[in-house]
Design a protein that fits this description.
Elements: H1 8-31, H2 54-223, E1 236-242, E2 248-255, H3 260-273, H4 282-287, E3 292-297
Helix pairs in contact: 2-3
Amino acid sequence: MPRQAFRPSEGRFLLYSLLVHAGLLAILLINLGPMTSVQQAQPPEIIHAITVDEDSLAQVQQEREQREVEQRRAEEAAQRQRQAEEERRQAEQERQRQVEQQRRAREQQEAEERQRQEQAEQRREQEAAQRRAEEEERRQREAAEQRRQEEVERQRAEEERRQAEEEARRQREEEARRQAEAEAQREREAELQRQLEEEAAQQAAERARTRFVDAWGRAVRQAWTRPPGSDSGLTADVRVRVLPDGEVTSVEIVRSSGDAIFDRSVESAIRRASPLPVPDDSAAFRRAGLDNITFRFNPDQ
């Protein structure tokens, strides 16, 4: 069989194939590089490549360029992160520097303020010492003058004391007399006020008693039903015991009308009218004596 002639295009394809496979092998070794320290290297697989088309070569080239772009992006991100960390570190140093500067400024201001206070305190002490010296000199002059007038002052003071004691005694007696008169007047006024209040309370209780007894009569008349055959003009005196809330606890005929049926109808009407109207104040209820009261029931009134 005759040997085929070698064509240049076949050599070019073979070269491209070898380059592609060499590139793939290099990438594989790079990716597997960190694992060589913990894993035993495997013998590379022998790839027999004869030809590769231009599309495969372009794809490999595109993948390599993509990896280079991603690597550049990763490096740029790392660079930005390092730059940001460096800026944060510088900002923290600047903040600490400013804090230290402010602290030193405060310490200097406090030291200057302490110095001003010390100077002011020294001036005050000097002024106080000068005033004490002047005061001592003045007291000495006054003491000399006072010793010269002591006898005259003592005699005059003695006379004034005697007169003051006499005046105080007279004023105490006058004050005691006024107080006794005022106390007697207060007692008279208090007694008069008590009597007036008692009379007013009694009158109010009487008015309340009359008003509520009349109201009871109206309430009982509204609740009362005339018995059949009952004569007109009958009346009965009834004793009623009532609680402060108006509830009737007992009813007793103390003066009969002469008609037993009429009397029973009155008792029934009072119980139906319970609770009876009473004052809102329980004290007023007791003052009016409404807890145990006798009133006359007259249905024709």
